[in-house]
Structures are given as C-alpha cells and as structure tokens.
Amino acid sequence: MARQSPERPDADEPELDDTSGPAEPDAAASADAARALWDELRIDPVEIALPAGTGYTLRAYRPARELTPTDVAERDADDPFLARRQVVEAEDDEDGEVVILDDEVAREFAESDDEEKPAGRGAGDAEKGDAEESDADEDDADTKAADEAGDEEVPVFLSHRGRLLLFKTPESLVSFVRSGAPNDLSQLDSWNELSERVEPADIAPRDEDVYELDLVVENLRGGHDSWDPTLLIEAGEVARDVAYALRLPAVLDMLSSGSSLDDLDEALRASINGGIGGFMGRRRLKKIGAQTASLGWRTIVGKISAVVDWRD
Predict the structure, then answer these.
(1) For residue 152, how many other CB atoms are within 10 A of its CB?
(2) Which is the most buried residue in 80, 87, 144, 308, by most CB within 10 A?
(3) Is 248 exposed, middle or buried (0-12, 13-18, 19+ CB in 10 A)?
(4) How many Å apart are CA 215 and CA 49, to the nearest integer?
(5) Which residues of 30-62 are buried (b: 16+ CB within 10 A; e: fewer)?
(6) Domain ranges (residues) in the chain
(7) 89-118: b or e for each residue (b if 16 or more CB lie within 10 Å)?
C-alpha cells in the first residue's frame, strides 16, 4: 500500500507566521532578571500617578538608625506659609522670656526663691535622691524606646532636599541614577552597584508598587457604593511612606491613628474580608462622610504634589 503524502496547504491560503512563542519566554526571563536585581539590592521601582502626570521613582526600606533624613531646610524656606508660622512661633518664644533689668527687683526674686526652698536638709536630699532615681528610670525607658525605633524599618525614596524626584520615563530615571547626582538613596550600601547594573528595561514596577493618587478624590466623590478599596488602601500606604520620608508632618497627622482618614482605611480593610468582619466593615463605611473623605484626600494629594520635582 502506497504511503499517502500529507496534504499541502492551498497555495492561495497565507501561511501563519507564529513568532509569539519565543518572545514570551524572553519577556518572562527579562522580568525575572529585573526582579532578581531589585530583590538583591533591596530597592524597588515605584510608579506614582498624580494630577500633574505619572512618574517613576525608587523606594527602599531600611532600619531608621541607618538613614540620614532628607534635608528640608531649603524646601521649607521656599514655603511662605511655613516661614510665616516659624516667625510667629519664634515671637511667642521671645514673649515667654522674663528679662529683669532692675537690680533691686532681681534681689527680691532671688530672696523669694530662697524662701520657697525646703527648710529640712534631710528632706531635700531624700527628694533629690527620688528625683535622680526617677530620672534614671526614665532615661532607661527612653534608651530602650530609641533602640526599638532605630531598629524599625522606614521608607526612603529617590529624593533630594525634601523633594520627591519623579521621572517621566524609565530612561530618564536610569540616566539620573548613573549620573552620580546627589540624592537620599545614595547613602545606601547597594546604591553604587545599582548605578552600575540598572537598565531602562529593569524599571518595571510590580502591580503593588503602582499607585494612582490621581484617582482617589474622584473615586471618593462617587459615593460609598463606588469606592475602590484596593485603590484607596494602596494610596494610604504610599502617602504615609512619602509623608515620613519627605518629612510632611501635616500629612502624617491626617493619616495618623484615630483620624477620620485612618478610620476610613481600617473600614476599607475590614470590608474586603469575608464573614462578620467584612459585614461590619461595610457598615462602618456607610457612616463615613464621602465629602469629608474627599476633601481630606484632596489636601493630601495637594501637599504631596507640592514637594514633587518632576524630571523628564
């Protein structure tokens, strides 16, 4: 029996050019290599969208004792409202000082102080000893608290002199990293290696490192039924990080424990859980004013936007 030759495709039928196969493994390998770089150096690319645009930056977490905070003196000097507040505070401090110019009045103050001193020497020594012991206990507690605070990992961004550096393209970000320009991340022990190895293709933030602050206010204005828990929770996380790293106490206060926006965050986190916890979280959300939340977040986004240094 003769073998039948396989059917040939019709000459008029175009042959399919399947080039998608090899490309997908290459892309996956490239993404894995980029992720390995960031994991090794403990620095991450971050994408942040603001009303003025979307940009890339870098973020790392390190123990607080290993970091020097960003210098905000120049930034705050350019803020007329902050400068005015500092002048008022200085005037208040000056008003609180007591200056005695008359010698006789000075002696009267000295005599009245002597009269108020305890008469018994033994009682005075005992009180002094108790005070010294109390001070020692407080010093020990303060030292322990400082040690614990120093061990806590805190965020640091690609920033300089109190301003967050955001780059419109991966190429411009890599160019800056390689330039040796001063920035707050250069204090990290892995920074020099990053500047030698990073490529534009490596600037590929993970989904959890992409933040859409430009959508937060509009989402909150839409009402409780349209609120996006993931969007709002992630916005709160990056806002806290930026506020800490860039030294924005007003933003930290607005998101601090017990604040209305912190209550919103906790209710959102509870609402995405199942069971009774999720039910109670959704009930708590209904009690949070949409207008208050949107106004608060508009202020936060505005304050963060004000300290951004956009780079092309």
Answers:
(1) 10
(2) 308
(3) buried
(4) 8
(5) eeeebeebbeebebbbbbbbbeeeebbbbbbeb
(6) 42-72+153-311, 84-151
(7) eeeeeeeeeeeeeeeeeeeeeeeeeeeeee
Helix (H, G, I), strand (E, B) or coil at 22: helix
**Consecutive 10-residue runs of the chain (312 residues): their mean pLDDT?**
46 51 63 89 98 98 97 85 50 48 47 49 55 63 60 96 98 98 98 97 97 98 94 98 98 96 95 86 90 96 98 90
Task: Provide the 3-class DSSP secondary structure of residue 237.
Answer: helix
| CA pair distance 210, 225, nearest whole angstrom | 24
Phi/psi region, residue 79 (left: phi>0; alpha: psi -120 to 50; beta: rest), is: beta
Sign of the CA dihedral 160, 164, 168, 173? Answer: positive
